[in-house]
Write a structure and sequence with these properties.
The protein is mainly alpha-helical and about 130 residues long. It is built from 4 helices and 2 strands, in the order αβαααβ. It starts with about 30 loop residues before the first helix and ends in a 13-residue tail after the last strand.
Length: about 130
């Protein structure tokens, strides 16, 4: 009697998505009062001075974008040598990254703010 024909029951494949885009990071030191006020507004005062602030929600990222747009517009109008002018290139990059894609959704963008140190004048929550 001839052997029974072989039958393929299943195929198991393990695939790794090999063309994953590496993380793109931009680090900068910020001392502008508008951005420090933004940090303090979203930090948790119950925990004292926050060590870091991770922004992922669409509403908070939109508010950060509005602050950065205002700083870029203000810097374009005036040339008084302020720290905003010194950071103009990085602020413009942040603005472009936050504007990319048209809306905030999924896990495609995250902003992480970490204070280096607090001066006594800025250490108070209002």
């Amino acid at each position: 009697r001839p052997p029974a024909p072989l039958e393929l029951r299943c195929v198991v494949g393990v695939f790794r998505h090999g063309d994953r885009t590496p993380k793109q990071k931009l680090k900068m030191t910020i001392t502008h009062p508008d951005l420090l006020a933004f940090f303090q507004r979203f930090a948790d005062p119950a925990r004292g001075m926050a060590r870091e602030l991770k922004l992922k929600s669409a509403q908070v990222l939109q508010e950060l974008l509005d602050v950065v747009r205002g700083l870029v517009a203000r810097s374009e109008r005036s040339s008084d040598g302020s720290d905003v002018e010194d950071q103009m290139d990085k602020l413009v990059q942040i603005k472009h990254v936050l504007e990319r894609g048209g809306k905030f959704s999924g896990i495609n963008r995250k902003v992480q703010l970490k204070p280096i140190k607090w001066n006594e004048a800025t250490a108070e929550y209002t």
